[in-house]
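ARCHIVE CARD
Drawer: 12
Card no.: 0347
Subject: one protein chain, sequence and derived structure
Cross-reference: see card 0346
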Amino acid sequence: MSNRLPTHGPGRDTWVTALVWSAGFVGVLWVLEVLDQVLFRGGLDGYGIRPLDTGAGLAGIVFAPLLHGGIGHLVANTVPLLVLGFLILLSGVARWLAVTAIVWIVGGLGTWLTGGFNTLHLGASVLVFGWLVYLLLRGVFSRRVGQIAVGVLVLLLYGGALWGVFPGQPGISWQAHLFGAIGGGLAAYLLARDDARPVPTQVQPRW
């Protein structure tokens, strides 16, 4: 009798979980934006990041990625959020939460410090850029072939978006894009140590 060695890679349950969490998170953003448009007439946007404001503007670090300046703004973020979030979630919900927390904090603080007086910053694009850079760099740090391959695919799909970290387009928070991307790079570096560790496997005896 021979017992099979454990298989590697995400199974069906992992794919389903990733899909549910990815769609669920984006669904929450849509619910919030519809409520904002219908009930609050855009009033929730005031909870975005107001740079160097130590009151509500600082609290905006918590709320800004959940808010959008209209349906069109959210539409532009929806597909990248679904795709990039799903790819990270294939590594587990805990990993997605860790990456998201790092990007959220670094992106928010960086925007609050550098966004400029009398400006308001909001939108989940900070997460888009953070998740994008995380996926691009995690394979570089972990040296895992599969993660490098995913990074190349992501680069082909969304690499052009990285120009958004540079100033130039009016009304676009390049600071949120830049510091979200920095947060994603930091997450890739910090979390790659876990990815690089060899996964112990128990070899089953053959009888």
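Annotation on reverse: Residues 1-7, 199-207 have pLDDT under 50 and may be disordered. The chain has seven helices and no strands.
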